[in-house]
Amino acid sequence: MIAVFGNAHARRERKSMRAVLQTESTPLKPAAAGVAARTCSDPVFAVLFVVHLLGVGAIAAVDLPRLGSVKLPPPTRSSTTSTDVEADDAWALAAAGLVPGLLVGALATALSLWLMLRDAGAMFRAAFVASLVLLGVNAIALFASGAIGDVFGGIALVFVLLIHVWFYCVVQRHLPFALASLETAAAFVRRHPSSMALGFASLVPLLLHAALVAPLLYVSAVDLSAAVEAYGDGGGGGAAAARQRAGALQAKLAFLAFSLFWVWQLVASLVHVSVAGAFAAWYFQGSRAVTPVRASVGRACTSSFGSVAFGSLLTAIIRFLRFAFSADRRDAWDNCCVLLILECLEALLRFFNKYAFCYVAIYGYPFCKAGREVVRLFEEKGLQTLINDDLVLIALLFPLFAAFGLGALCGGVAGWAVMSLEAGLACAFISGLIAAFVADLTVVRTIDSCAATLFVCFAENPQALSISAPDSFSLLSSAWSARFERLPVASVGVPF
Q1: In this structure, are residues 314 and 353 in contact, taking their beta carbons and an 8 Å threshold?
Q2: Per the domain annotation, does 496 fall within a domain?
Q3: Considering Cα of 117, then 122, then 128, then 129, what sign does the dihedral take?
Q4: Whose CA is closest to 256, among 315, 288, 212?
Q5: How many other C-beta atoms are found inside a 10 Å radius of the C-beta of residue 90?
Q6: Would the pLDDT of 65 be above 60?
């Protein structure tokens, strides 16, 4: 009898809580919910990006008609020889050897995704063990060579291996929540598989932009070479004009190279914001979010485009500076120090931008306000954010290992069978890289974006998930309570 009354009381409490949450989950006015209105944020940077594209178009309008008349470098041999024919045949055979590797790499990507959707914990353990085995094998290989430099490299790898083991022992208590995050992200992907297609879709603008900029870079490089040669041969006013022309061409080359970095980073950020927005809609709305991916892509490309362009611009600037200092060989020591600083800044900014873009996708915040919210999140959750992010990335190493390993194995065997051992090694490397790139576009980036967005949403309003996905809420709440003893309290309104 007591149990019956207790169950009835529990059902009444759950019903009351559900009614409250359903009221909270309805779309609220931005002023009442404390959520920024879905207006165009950071429009200046959106305009700046469009102006930069117009600049690229203006350069293309001038240089592309000249592409056919640009003087090509002289050939190394005056006529076609049998060696050329043999080289062409070798490339054809090598390409034939790549096909099985790429196909198996695609199958490995699908298999890793299937395993991720079924058992994220097994994926984490497999990735951790694979990383330890890889470090151990490389260390043994370096020790076996006997060279002094290789021995020191082996000692360094053993040290890194020990750090991996120590890290696993320290963060083991944080592991249940990270695995629960992966399971929840997998639940979203199972319900909305179109989210993984965004990675493939992002290749279209990237390839179109690269196909436009590559010939422009070539024409500008040929013109710069001619200007430098004229500067060296001429004198007086001719030399001054050649120097000015060389400076203008260097500026044009820098602008085109920077365009590649900015467009690449912006497209990747748009994919992240789109996936994050779709996951947030599923988090707060559940089955009521009919087409969350399509709606999120629309918001990312319209109202949030300026914020995405702003954050991408910061990362593109640092990457461009890294590229410029890497190409400059005049002072290797100073460049090495600058490159190290830029590498650290890029890593910090990439981590910061990932969570800032989550706030942009969820609430429509401008980039600066999203950055302040990220700082607040870090202040409240401390190292939990960083540790959870690292554990998720470790688990996501398995799809990369699987795709690269199987793709390289099959590509190498096919290339060896068709041609030679050297061709097999080349096919193995290329097949592995392409397969890993495909796995990164589809599985890794999608799951990583979902896991980061989940951490933000759960920290802001954990109770909303109890209606949209009760099973995921139970899994996450138990893992969170085991680590922090109590759930966080909702701090903002529901944005969807």
Answers
A1: yes
A2: no
A3: negative
A4: 212
A5: 16
A6: yes
How many residues does this entry show for the chain?
496
Residue range 324-347: average pLDDT? 77
Tell me which amino acid residue 330 is: R
CA distance 413 to 101: 9
Q: Write the DSSP symbol of residue 464.
A: G
Give the closest residue to 469 by CA, choosing from 457, 481, 460: 457
pTM for the whole thing?
0.81
When pLDDT is cut at 50, 70 and 90, the band that residue 58 belongs to is: very high
Is 163 within the bounds of a domain?
Answer: yes
pLDDT over 70 (residue 297): yes
Token pair of 309, please?
């362009």
- Among 171-175, 315-319, 331-335, the range with the most confident prediction by mean pLDDT is 315-319
N- to C-terminal Cα separation, the chain: 42
- The average pLDDT across 424-443 equals 76
Q: How many domains does the chain have?
A: 1
pLDDT above 60 for 144: yes
pLDDT in tens, 253-274: 999 999 999 999 999 999 999 9
Residue 71 is predicted with a pLDDT of 63
How far apart CA 406 and CA 436 sit, in angstroms, is: 10
Per DSSP, helices labelled H in 171-236 are 175-191, 197-233
| CA dist., res. 185 & res. 255, Å (int) | 39
Confirm whether 283 is domain-assigned.
yes
Q: Is residue 221 part of a domain?
A: yes
Residue type, 377: L
Q: Print the domain residue range for 215.
A: 34-68+93-484
Q: Per-residue DSSP letters for 65-122?
A: GGGGGSPPPPPSSSS--HHHHHHHHHHHHHHHHHHHHHHHHHHHHHHHHHHHHH-HHH
Least confident interval from 183-187, 313-317, 344-348, 401-405: 401-405
DSSP string over 301-322: HTTTHHHHHHHHHHHHHHHHHH
Lowest mean pLDDT: which of 382-396, 445-459, 466-480? 382-396
Q: Report residue 251 as tokens.
A: 């500026």
Would you say the C-alpha torsion 321, 326, 330, 336 has a positive or negative sign? positive
Alpha-carbon span 38 to 35, nearest angstrom: 9
Cα separation, 315 vs 319, whole angstroms: 6
